[in-house]
Structures are given as C-alpha cells and as structure tokens.
C-alpha cells in the first residue's frame, strides 16, 4: 500500500466515480469531499472504503457547485492523514504501471527536501482510446504534492499550490498519466462556459493588477494553443474537434471577462 492520500471532489458523480476509484486501490487513504450528492456517488465511495467529508457552504454556490476550488483543495490538505497528496477530479482516471514511483516519493526525504509538487501529464481519451500526444496534450499539472511543503492553494479556479519557500521546485513525472473524457456536447460546453465565467468574474472583480494579469495570461495561453494546432497537427480528426471546442470555449470566456472588466473600468 502507498502511504499517500488521494483527494477527490464530487457532486452527483456516479457515472464516473467507479472508474476513478477502481485505479486507486493501492493508496492508503482516499478522501471524497462531496458537495451534496443525491445519486449513488457516496454508495460507490463506501464500497471502496473512502473517507467521506462534506464540503462547507463557503466552498459552494447555492446550487451546490464549487465556487472556490482552492478552499476545497486546502480543506483536503488539512484533513489528509499522509504528507503526499494526489488531487483528482471525479471524472479522471490515474493510469500507471509504475505506482512504485509514488510509493518512493511518499518515503523519500531527499525528494521532500527538493520538491513541493510533481507535474503529472493529463491526456484525453475518446472511444476507449487514449491519446498521449495531441496538439494540446499532454498537459502537465501539479497534481501530486507534499502538503508540508505547501502554503496553500490559490485562485478560485485553475487553482495551483504555492510552496513554503522559493527553494522548493516542481518536477515532471512522465511514467504516470491522468485521462479525461474528450467528449463534450454543445449543451455541456455552454454549462461549463457559464460556470467558469461566473467564478472568474468574481476573481477579477477587484481593482487590482493581479486581475489584469489573469486575463493577459489567459490570452497568452490561448495564443499558444492556436499556434500548437496550426503547426503540430498531431491529433486525429475527432480529437481536433474536441481541441477546437476547448479553444472556442476559452476564447468566449476571455471575451466575456474583458467586457466585464471594461465595464468596471468605465464605472471608476
């Protein structure tokens, strides 16, 4: 068994949570931080002997969806029994024939002195096929962290961990990878667009340079995504459709945020 905690945010996740949990059997602790599921999410979690916690009201909108992911992640860190913590979403699956690496990281004092997080590649799967190399993926994200080396997570969405000092680094781990379903209907895209835009509006509502930086950084990421699709052309046709939907959704969100921020400037 691996001396590490897995933290998963759930809300009516019955359709995906079984596959997610089924690949986590070697972890000593799995925390389910639930937002108030009314389907069979928690029944499935109990079968895997997960530790079930409730999300606080301060984490959520009135419709139970999360409004501050950093607060939720920080709560998982607070409750985790183990120092090494893996953060997953309920619709993601951790794949590896190399779990010994995580076990090693959970025990290594040398690694703990050097690093605060480990970047794991996130890749799409579609129609039972995993696509490890596409135009936009793999996307390395800080999902595996030492909680003793973390101050806290920051940002309401697209949250990231901040180290306790600048000497600690991040390290890419290529032997592991996380998959997510690369299939979104137009209705799902609209719901996701509305949801993230609502959270991001709250993030940029303050009159600060940081909010401007957030938008500019988003534009830079969008530009880089465009270049990758134009130049590399690694993806097959179905994944390219998904990638274009992702870019379009990101572009619409940024446009809405710019309009929103511009209106704030106008009122000053």
Keywords:
12 strands, ten-stranded mixed beta sheet, Spore Coat Polysaccharide Biosynthesis Protein SpsA, Chain A, 268 residues, two-stranded antiparallel sheet, alpha/beta, 43% helix, globular, 8 helices
Description:
Helices cover 43% and strands 26% of the residues. With 268 residues, it is an alpha/beta fold. The protein has two domains: 2-181, Spore Coat Polysaccharide Biosynthesis Protein SpsA, Chain A, CATH 3.90.550.10; 186-267. Strands 1, 2, 3, 4, 5, 6, 7, 8, 11 and 12 form a ten-stranded mixed beta sheet that branches. A two-stranded antiparallel sheet has the order 9-10. Strand 2 (27-34), helix 2 and strand 3 (51-54) form a beta-alpha-beta unit. Helix 1 runs parallel beside helix 2 and helix 7 (209-231) packs antiparallel against helix 8 (237-267). The protein is globular.
Question: What is the end-to-end distance?
Answer: 57 Å
CATH homologous superfamily descriptor of the largest domain: Spore Coat Polysaccharide Biosynthesis Protein SpsA, Chain A
Radius of gyration, in Å, reads 19 Å
The residue-averaged pLDDT reads 93
- Spell out the helices and strands N to C: EHEHEHEEHHEEEEEEEHHH
Secondary structural class = alpha/beta
Number of alpha- plus pi-helical segments:
8
Regions with little confidence, pLDDT below 50 for 5+ residues:
none
* Domain module tally: 2
Can you tell me the overall shape? globular
Instruction: Estimate the strand proportion.
Output: 25-35%
By CATH, the topology of the largest domain is Spore Coat Polysaccharide Biosynthesis Protein SpsA, Chain A
Fraction of residues in H or I helices: 40-55%
Number of strands: 12
Largest sheet geometry = 10 strands, mixed
CATH class of the largest domain: Alpha Beta
- Oligomer designation: single chain
> What is the CATH architecture annotation of the largest domain?
Alpha-Beta Complex
């Amino acid at each position: 068994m691996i001396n590490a905690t897995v933290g998963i945010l759930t809300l009516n996740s019955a359709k995906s949570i079984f596959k997610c949990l089924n690949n986590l059997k070697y972890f000593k602790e799995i925390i389910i931080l639930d937002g108030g599921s009314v389907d069979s999410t928690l029944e499935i979690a109990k079968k895997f002997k997960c530790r079930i916690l409730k999300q606080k009201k301060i984490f959520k909108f009135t419709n139970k969806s999360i409004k501050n992911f950093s607060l939720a992640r920080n709560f998982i860190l607070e409750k985790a029994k183990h120092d090494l913590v893996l953060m997953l979403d309920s619709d993601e699956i951790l794949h590896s024939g190399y779990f010994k690496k995580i076990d090693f990281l959970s025990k290594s004092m040398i690694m703990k002195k050097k690093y605060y997080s480990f970047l794991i590649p996130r890749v799409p799967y579609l129609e039972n096929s995993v696509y490890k190399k596409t135009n936009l993926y793999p996307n390395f994200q800080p999902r595996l962290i030492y909680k003793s080396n973390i101050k806290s997570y920051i940002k309401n969405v697209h949250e990231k961990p901040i180290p306790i000092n600048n000497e600690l680094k991040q390290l890419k781990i290529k032997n592991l990878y996380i998959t997510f379903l690369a299939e979104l209907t137009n209705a799902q895209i609209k719901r996701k667009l509305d949801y993230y835009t609502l959270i991001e509006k709250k993030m940029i509502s303050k009159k600060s340079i940081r909010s401007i930086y957030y938008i500019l950084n988003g534009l830079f990421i969008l530009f880089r995504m465009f270049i990758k699709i134009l130049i590399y052309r690694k993806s097959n046709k179905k994944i390219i459709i998904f990638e274009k939907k992702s870019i379009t959704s990101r572009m619409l969100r940024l446009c809405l945020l710019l309009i929103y921020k511009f209106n704030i400037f106008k009122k000053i």
